[in-house]
Amino acid sequence: MAVKDVWLSGTEEFEPTDEGHQEMELHESGPRLREQLGTVVSDDYVLEDDLSDDERMIVNMGPQHPSTHGVLRLQIELEGEIIRRSKPIIGYLHTGMEKTAETLTFMQGPTNVTRMDYLAPFHNELCYSLAVERLLGVEVPPRAQAIRVLLTELNRVSSHLVALATNGMDIGAISMMLYGFRDRELVLAFFEKTTGLRMNHNFIRPGGVAADLPPGWRADVADIVETIPRRLEDYDDLLKNNPIWLERTKGVGVITPEECLAYSITGPTLRAAGVAWDLRKNFPYSGIEQYEFEVPVGQNGDVYDRYQVRMAEIHESLRIVAQVLETMPKGDYRTDDRKVTPPPRQRIDESMEALIHHFKIFTEGFRVPPGEIYQAIESPRGELGCYIVSDGGGKPWRMHTRAPSFANLQALPIMMADSLVADTVATIASLDPVMGDVDR
Amino acid sequence: MAKLSGPPNFLMTTVGKAARWARTRSMFPATFGLACCAIEMMATGAAHNDLARFGMEVFRASPRQADLMIVAGRVSQKMAPVLRQVYDQMPDPKWVISMGACASTGGMFNNYALVQGVDQVVPVDIYVPGCPPGPQSLMHGILTLHDKIMSGEIAR
Amino acid sequence: MTTDTESPAEIRPPPRPRPENPVLAGLIEPFGDAEWTLSNGDDVVRLPRERLADLAAAARRVGFETCADVTVVDYLRRSSGRFDVVANLLSLQHRLRLRILVAVSNDDPACPSLVSIYPGANFFEREAFDMFGIRFEGHPDLTRILMPDDWEGHPLRKDYGVGSVPVQFKESHQVS
Questions:
Q1: Which member of C67, C73, C119 has the closest CB to residue A398?
Q2: Are the Cβ atoms of A162 and B132 closer than 8 angstroms?
Q3: Which residue of chain B has the CA closest to C150?
Q4: Do residues A253 and A302 lie in contact, with contact meaning Cβ atoms separated by under 8 Å?
Q5: Measured between beta carbons, which residues in chain A are less than 8 angstroms from residue C41?
Q6: For the CA atoms of chain B, what is the radius of gyration?
Q7: Count of domains forming chain A
C-alpha cells in the first residue's frame, strides 16, 4: 500500500457524491431552492405572497421561561423572525380565589384578595374594603383614609420599581434589577414596620385599617420621599438617552388609543397611548381628591412611553406621599361602628358587650345587607374592580375581581403583530402583567 | 464508583467530602418562580440579601443546567405536569426546596384549583414556611440544605 | 253613575323610573323592557337577553367606549333564572358607569356575546364560560381559559364543591 493511499483524516478532500445533493434538492421548499440556483437573491427580508404555509413555524414560549413574568405561555406563529399571530395561554396560576372568597367572612376577605396582584397587595385590599364599606353604608374616618392613601401610593412606587427592574433586566440592563430591588427594600422596610409583613399585608380592612401607624413613621416616610427621587435620576441617566435602550424600546409594541379602549386596556398602557384616564382623578376614592398630583400621559403608545409614564408616576406618587406626610389628620384609624370593627383591646376587659362583639366579628363575621356593588380603583396596572354580591349573611355570595392584567393581556397579540420575536420580551415586560392577577 | 454523596466509606472519604463541598458551594437554582414567593426569591437574590455570596446568584433558565429547583409559589392543576417535566429535565444530583405555604401544603387555598403540597408531584428536601417567607427565611432554608448535603444526610 | 272625568281605562300606569343622567336616560329610552335601578349608587339596567347586543351597540354609539368587565353570578334557586350575566360598561367622555344584568336560566345557559361590539370582552366571556358554563353565542373562541382543557365541570357554580381536602382540626371542607 502506497503512502498516498493511507487515509489521513482531515487532510483528504471528499469527493462529492450525487446522492446527498439530490436528497437535499427533493426536500427543499421552493424559494430556498431558487436561491440556491441563483435566481433569487434575498439580502433583505422580502414578503412574498406565494410562500406556502411550510414557512410558518409555531413556537411555544413558556410557561416556565425567565422572561415571561410568571407563568404565561405564548404561542407564536412565526414567519422567519416576524410574528404573524400570537396567543397568550393563561391559567397556570389559577388559584380559585373567587371560590375561596365565598367561604371566608368579610373580615377575612382581604387575606384572600391581597394575594391576587401580589405586587400591589394594598390596592387589592383597598378595592375589596371600599366595596364592602359601600354595601355596609359605613363611613371611614379621615385618618384611616389618609393612611390608606399613604400605603397605596407607596405600594404604587414599589410596584413600579419592580416593573422598571424587570423591564430593564429583560431588555438587557441587568443592573436595573439590582437597583430596583434595592430601592424597593426601603419601602418594604416601612411596610414591615407598619403592618408586620413585607408583602401580602392584610392591613386595609373593611372599616379602616388594622392598626395605627407606628411611632417614628414620619422619619421613615421622609427618608423614602427624599432618597428615591435621587435614585430615579440615576436610572434616567442610565436609560433615558441610552442608544441601546432607545433602539429596543422606541417604536416597539405600539398600540393606538382606540385599540386600547376597544380591548379594555387601562392603566399606564392606556395613558402611554395618549388617553389621560386615571380613576384617581375621574372617580376619586378614599379622599385622594384632596391631594395635588398630575397624571402623566405619553404620546406614541410604545414601550418607551410606558417606561416614561411609570417613571413619572413614581414621582407623582411620592408627591402625594409628601402631602400626606404633612397633612395627616388625627383621629381614629377605623370606624366607630362596633358592629363592623372589633373593639379596642382594653375595652374587651372592661365591657361584656365589647367581648361579645369581638367574638361575633371574628367567628361569625359581621353581616352585610343584601345587594350588589362594583367598586373600581386605580392600581399600578390599571382599573382594579371588585364586584361583590351579598345575600345578607356574613360571607359574600359572589366576589369577582376585575383584574387589570387579565384585560391588558388581550393587547398582547395586537402589540406583537408584525413585529420581531426579539421584541416580544420587551413588549411583555412593558405591559407588566402579574399572573396572580390574571389567573386569580 | 462508590457514591460520592452517601455516608462516606473509608476509601472515598476525602473525595466524597470534596465533592459534596463543591456541590454546595456552587448550587445553581432553576427559575421556577410562580407567584408572590417568586418576588421574595428575587429579593433574596438582589443586593440587600445577597445570594451571590453563596455562589447562587445565577438563576439558570434552562433546567438542564440547574441543580436546585426552588418551587416558589402556588402550583395549580394546570401547572403540575409542567413542574414534573421541569424536574425530570434536571440532571442528577438535584434538590428541591418547597418555598412558602402554598408550595408546601396548599397554603390558605384549600380548594379545587391547587395541588395541596408540591410533594405530591416532586420529592421535596426542604420546606420553607411563610406566606411569603422573607429572604432571611429562604436563606435559612437554603443554608440548611447546604448543611444537610455536607453532612451526607441527603444522599443524592 | 260616575262623574269622574277619567275612566279606569284611561289612568296611565306610573312612569317607570328614569335615570337622572341624561345620557343614560336617552340610552335606555328606546328599550321598553329595560328596568333601571340604583344599586348602592351604581346605575343598573336589567333586560332580557335578546336585547343585550342591541343595548351594548347603542351604548357604544352613545359614548361607552370600553367594556370594563363581564361576569356571571349563580343565584342557584331563583325563579327568574339561575344565572345573571353582568356586563360593566365604562364611558370615559361622560365619566359614567353602567351595569347591565341579564337573567339566564339553567335550561338554556346561553347569552349573546359582546365581542363583536367590545373586542375586550373576549377573555372575560371565556372565563365566564369556563367557570359557569354559560355559552356566549358569537364568541370567536369559546374555550376554557383558566382550567385545564380537559377539566370537567364548571368550578364557580354553587353546586360545585370547593374541593378542599380534610384538614385536621378544621372544618374547612364544609361550605356554609
A1: C73
A2: no
A3: B78
A4: yes
A5: 134, 373
A6: 16
A7: 1
Asked if the structure places residue B5 within a domain, the reply is no
Residue-number span of the structural domain to which B90 is assigned: 26-147
Average pLDDT of adjacent 10-residue blocks, chain B of 156 residues: 56 78 86 87 87 84 88 90 90 90 89 89 92 91 90 74
First-residue to last-residue Cα distance in chain B: 14
Domain count, chain B: 1
**pLDDT tens by residue, A301-338:** 889 999 999 999 999 999 999 999 999 998 888 888 87
Cell 464508583, residue? B1
Residues of C in contact with A440 (CB under 8 A): 146
Q: Give me the domain span that covers residue C126.
A: 17-137
Q: What is the pTM of this model?
A: 0.86
C76 domain-assigned: yes
Inter-chain touch A410–C120, beta carbons under 8 Å? yes
C166 touches B: beta carbon within 8 Å:
no
Q: Report the C-alpha gap between B42 and B34 in whole angstroms.
A: 11
Nearest CA-CA partner of C97 in A407, A402, A432: A402
The domain that holds C133 is classified in CATH as 3.30.460.80
Q: How close B77 gets to chain C, by Cα (Å)?
A: 7
CATH classification of the domain holding A149: 1.10.645.10
Partners of chain A (3+ Cβ pairs below 8 A): B, C
Residue type, A216: G
- Say what the ipTM of the complex is: 0.87
Interface contacts (A, C; CB < 8 Å): 104
The whole-angstrom separation of Cα A36 and Cα A29 is 11
Terminal-residue alpha carbon distance, chain C? 62
Residue B41, in any domain of the structure: yes
Q: Do B36 and A99 touch (CB under 8 A)?
A: no
